[in-house]
Amino acid sequence: MIAQPKKDSVLITSQFLFPQFTDGKVMMKDGSAYNVKLNYDASLDQMQFMDVNSQILFIGEPDKVNKLEIGKRSFIYRKGYFVEVLIDGPISLFSRVHIQKDVQKNGAYGSSTATSSIQSLSTMKLSDGNDTKLRPSEKAIYQKEVFFFVMVNEKSKLILNEKDLLKCFSSNKELLKKEIDKEQTNFKSADSMKKIVEWIIANGIKN
């Protein structure tokens, strides 16, 4: 039996945002910068990096980070999480990926049950890139959820559906709704969300 994904989530094979540690850059608020290999553990909400000895560490003071770049993608730290910057403009769009890890254990007569995995970490260092070691009889199931935020007038709003987006631009509600219907905006798709926010900016839609 395979654990069923929660509504609006998808099953994936890892808790990491990238398939491997990728060349990146950490830019600090004090002006210093570091070129390192980075990856984001979305089950622990930790930005991790590989040091010169190939040990995996996590950024212990993320509030001191101004911006991160991993490949061609940019991230900032906001309210306890690293979020990806999808659009940086008069109206900004961010996405946050969260991955829930369940450990599936074999039960009697070949049945299985899923139990939530809780991991306690040391203050600064991880022994490897995985958050737990599984027994041969166990299987990890990862469920990914993506959340989008728009920033309007320095205020960040969580956008789960059409209603949330229309609330952000109430003075142009009817015009925006027509565009959402026309484009069949998918509020779980990064490409679809980028397209509607780019349209809002291009057409001077105000809140």
Please name the defining characteristics of this protein:
single chain; 207 residues; mainly beta; 2 domains; 13-stranded antiparallel sheet; 3 helices; 15% helix; globular; disordered N terminus
Could you describe the 3D structure shown?
The chain has 207 residues and is mainly beta. Helix content is 15%, strand content 43%. The chain has three helices and 13 strands. Strands 1, 2, 3, 4, 5, 6, 7, 8, 9, 10, 11, 12 and 13 form a 13-stranded antiparallel sheet that branches. A hairpin with a 3-residue loop joins β8 (81-87) and β9 (91-106). The longest helix is centred in the last third of the chain and has 13 residues, at 190-202.
Provide a compact summary of the structure.
It is built from three helices and 13 strands, in the order βββββββββββββααα. By secondary structure, the chain is mostly beta strands.
| Poorly predicted sequence stretches spanning 5 or more consecutive residues | 1-5, 108-132
Tell me the total number of β-strands. 13
What is the SS-derived class? mainly beta
The tally of helices reads: 3
- Helix-strand topology string: EEEEEEEEEEEEEHHH
Radius of gyration: 20 Å
Largest sheet: 13 strands, antiparallel
The overall number of domains is: 2
Name the helicity range: 10-25%
Instruction: Report the mean per-residue pLDDT as an integer.
Output: 82
Beta content: 35-45%
Shape: globular
Helices and strands in order:
Elements: E1 10-12, E2 22-28, E3 33-41, E4 46-50, E5 56-58, E6 65-70, E7 73-78, E8 81-87, E9 91-106, E10 112-116, E11 125-126, E12 138-152, E13 155-159, H1 162-168, H2 173-183, H3 190-202
Antiparallel strand pairs: 1-12, 2-3, 2-6, 3-4, 4-5, 5-11, 6-7, 7-8, 8-9, 9-10, 9-12, 12-13
